[in-house]
Write a structure and sequence with these properties.
Chain A has 9 helices and 18 strands. With about 325 residues, chain A is an alpha/beta fold. Chain A has a 7-stranded parallel β-sheet with strand order 7-11-6-1-4-5-12, sandwiched between helices. In chain A, strands 15-14-16-17-18 form a 5-stranded parallel β-sheet. The relative contact order of chain A is 0.12. Chain B has one domain: HUPs (Rossmann fold), CATH 3.40.50. In chain B, the strands form 2 sheets. Chain B has a 9-stranded mixed β-sheet with strand order 9-8-7-10-6-1-4-5-11, with helices on both faces. A two-stranded antiparallel sheet of chain B has the order 2-3. In chain B, about 50% of the residues are buried. Classes of the chains: A alpha/beta (about 325), B alpha/beta (about 250). At the A-B interface, helix 3, helix 4, strand 7, strand 9 and strand 10 of A face helix 3, helix 4, strand 7, strand 8 and strand 9 of B. Strand 13 of chain A pairs antiparallel with strand 9 of chain B.
Chain lengths: ~325, ~250
């Protein structure tokens, strides 16, 4: 009976949303077959196994080791490849997160197979795995076929939302391959941003500021709008991160984060091609920009061609009022 | 330092793509080609390392048909020392097939550092660098936004995560893939372009690995319907909120 193996990513002892997405995607692939999840971290990480069971994992292989306190790609890749072999996995599903993209190619190389990366959908087609993968900065959509067994895939964050489908989630202890503390690649420091804030890949709403805001301190109006929504993250354009107004990790675009929230609000963003590449798949796009000829209006569902410093505070008040009523 | 930089020739993304009659590739007619963005950062990073430390040698390596020689010459004109083309009729989509060919070439090169771009801007698989590291048995740090190899023995790097970053180290020799933030590529000088013509460019057959990942279809995503400009000042805010509630249903 073929098994689908999912990597349940955790960071600093917390399960990430992409872990539930990977298990959900694995469950969809498995049909009536078994889903096995792999969960690694330092002591106590196993407490998250129940959540994986809730999302469709029949078995959760838990490896608790001090060497997994921080990202440990060498030990993790060895563990996942061994688990794929031990469970006879037909498909290995990882998130296309920073850590998932770091580990997946190593796992594929250990298994000597190709990789289908950053998929927005995945399914069996006969004996092959078929997935869709945006290429050329999202301007072209590729359908990729994997014939190798096991097939290794990474799923774009947000593409398959977590869905509850309770299964046993039976916990099995998984021994590390070798000594995880002896890896050559060592993550010495993890610096979390403001963890009270939603991540760009997870937030249903994103408010992005561009150079039209004129100065770093003017991001306050963008922050306030995001806060009014209550479920929003704040993004930035490359011009803004290049100028150091915002950290590089907030950059949305061709060379930054690729996002597809339910609602994307671009404030003072002209809409350079490289930015559009990162957000064009958002469900609803709103643009607020002084220049009504700005390219952002070509892909925005709704636009206000006005002064952001006048419009955004009004919008913030209106969103607060609307949310207070609902 | 002896450094290798893997380089891919990709189409300029600032264009409206068409699909080739085969249905499994983009139509290359009229497209402009250049070095993939992140590979440019990698080439620049290599140059800066050796400029700071003095000496060393940087080899550009690219897999593909003869047209990749143009991209390799560009790398040489930036200041890289020599180039290797791993000749193949086409660049496979399968990163593992590519990784085997690159690993076979890099294996005997006794490189201190092997650099890749974080990903090719066209196929966006972000896979070949770490795969090559696995095949060579070398440590690998992927997608680094800061890189320090100044002690000649250790890689100290920073990687951006979702809402966080981490600092990562590994011993040299190593494979590192370069994200934005490390170095903006320089423009080749006229002198550099002239010098590049005389630098060695070796052509060898690519020993591709097995292909198990293929493109079955390429298509253009559906166009977004044209949007509406609701107004030119804050008076349009109530209408925007109404549409977000009733039409888009996101509020």
């Amino acid at each position: 009976m073929p098994t689908i193996l999912a990597f349940a990513e955790a960071r600093a002892g917390q399960l990430r949303k992409v872990a539930l997405e990977a298990v959900t995607a694995a469950r969809q692939l498995a049909g009536g077959d078994q889903v096995h999840a792999v969960l690694v971290g330092e002591g106590g990480i196993g407490a998250h196994a129940a959540a994986l069971g809730q999302h469709g994992a029949d078995v959760v292989h838990v490896c608790e080791h001090a060497g997994f306190a921080r990202h440990n790609p060498e030990a993790l890749a060895a563990l996942l490849a061994a688990a794929a072999n031990a469970t006879g996995a037909r498909v290995v599903v990882l998130p296309a997160s920073a850590h998932g993209k770091d580990v997946a190619p190593r796992v594929a190389a250990k298994l000597k197979v190709g990789l289908a990366a950053d998929l927005t959908s995945v399914a069996f087609e006969g004996d092959a795995i078929v997935g869709r993968h945006p290429v050329n900065t999202g301007k072209v959509l590729a359908t990729v076929t994997l014939t190798a067994k096991p097939a290794v895939v990474t799923m774009r964050p947000g593409a398959v939302p977590p869905a509850a489908q309770p299964k046993a989630g039976t916990v099995q202890a998984l021994a590390p391959v070798g000594d995880p503390s002896a890896s050559r690649v060592v993550t010495t420091t993890l610096v979390q941003g403001n963890t009270a804030k939603l991540d760009l890949g997870e937030a249903p709403v994103i408010v992005t500021g561009g150079r039209g805001l004129k100065a770093a301190e003017h991001f306050a109006i963008v922050e306030a709008l995001a806060e009014a929504f209550g479920n929003a993250a704040v993004g930035a354009t490359r011009a803004v991160t290049d100028d150091g107004w915002r950290p590089h990790s907030d950059q949305i675009g061709q060379t930054g984060r690729l996002v597809s929230p339910d609602l994307y609000i671009a404030v003072g963003v002209s809409g350079a091609i490289q930015h559009l590449a990162g957000m064009r798949n958002s469900k609803t796009i709103v643009a607020i920009n002084k220049d009504k000829e700005a390219p952002i209006f070509k892909i925005a569902d709704y636009g206000i061609a006005g002064d952001a410093f006048e419009v955004v505070p009004k919008l913030t008040e209106a969103v607060k009022a609307a949310r207070a009523q609902s | 330092m002896k450094i290798a930089v893997a380089i891919k020739r990709v189409p300029d993304m600032d264009t409206r793509f068409k699909i080739a009659p085969s249905g499994t590739a983009v139509d290359e007619t009229g497209l402009k080609f250049d070095m993939s963005d992140f590979d440019g950062y990698a080439a620049e990073a290599a140059l800066q390392i050796n400029e700071k430390q003095g000496g060393g040698e940087i080899t550009a390596i690219s897999l593909g048909p003869d047209v990749v020689q143009e991209t390799l010459r560009k790398a040489l004109s930036m200041g890289l020392d020599k180039a290797v083309q791993l000749k193949a009729d086409a660049v496979p989509f399968d990163g593992y097939a590519i990784a085997e060919a690159l690993a076979a070439e890099l294996k005997g090169g006794s490189y201190d550092l092997i650099l890749f771009g974080r990903m090719a801007i066209d196929s966006s698989n972000q896979s070949v660098g770490p795969m090559v590291a696995e095949l060579l048995g070398l440590p690998c740090i992927s997608a680094v936004s800061q890189l320090d190899v100044s002690d000649g023995k250790t890689v100290k790097a920073r990687r951006e995560l979702e809402g966080a970053y981490e600092e990562v180290t590994c011993p040299l020799p190593a494979v590192v893939t370069i994200d934005e933030g490390v170095a903006r590529p320089r423009y080749p000088s006229l002198k550099g372009i002239m010098a590049a013509k005389k630098k060695p460019l070796e052509v060898k057959p690519a020993q591709l690995g097995p292909v198990t990942a293929t493109v079955a279809k390429m298509e253009l995503p559906p166009e977004r319907a044209a949007g509406r400009i609701l107004g030119e000042n804050a008076d349009a805010v109530p209408e925007l909120v109404r549409l977000l509630q009733t039409e888009a249903k996101v509020l």
